[in-house]
Design goal:
The chain has about 200 residues and is an alpha/beta fold. The chain has a single domain, classed as 3-Layer(aba) Sandwich (Rossmann fold), CATH 3.40.50. Helices cover about 25% and strands about 25% of the residues. It contains four helices and 13 strands. A nine-stranded mixed beta sheet has the order 6-3-2-1-7-10-11-12-13. A two-stranded antiparallel ribbon has the order 4-5. The longest helix has 21 residues. The N and C termini lie far apart (about 40 Å).
Length: about 200
Amino acid sequence: MLKPDKATLRKALRSRRKALGGFPRFLAIRQLEARLERLTRGLSLTAVAAYCAFDGEPELDGWLQRHRGQIWLPRVLPDHRLAFHHADPLTACSQRRMPRQRTNRFGITESADPRQRGINSLDALLIPLVGFDARGNRLGMGAGFYDRALAQRRGRRPLAIGVAFGCQEVEWLPVDPWDQPLDYIVTDTGVIDARASTGRTESS
């Protein structure tokens, strides 16, 4: 039996992500944020690249407001690389309150703050996912922005932390040579330490 390709999986999983709404979505985001907060504090992650939710991705407003460090948001450059620009955790990604913001060509909110950091000066990247498996493989939107960024990192820093709803997990994802694996995946249903041979570790 043929396994589905990335395009087929992407279409199905984007629909699954968008279909999660109402109170179930609210509850899932609260559970996800609680697990993410425990993980980032436990790993002493201070300078973190977050993201502004798009296309049904989990919003992280609560986690951003409670984060006790610096927040840096990705900006898509003309050459398809990512730059990471400063944002205030209390107002980041808020359309009404974020003082310095811009919208890129995909309709995603970015920081217009001129302060910038290189990827290897960050502690972690929070990466939105279209799909994932327990081995740390991720399926993104297909542009390869995060794969190119992670290919530049040295060693295990910054950590690559995928963020998704549990309903986006699949048993198997096709992997290309340029795909960059994740270190952790945080969802509403648990935390996967993809670096550990045991795979999933559930958060209380």
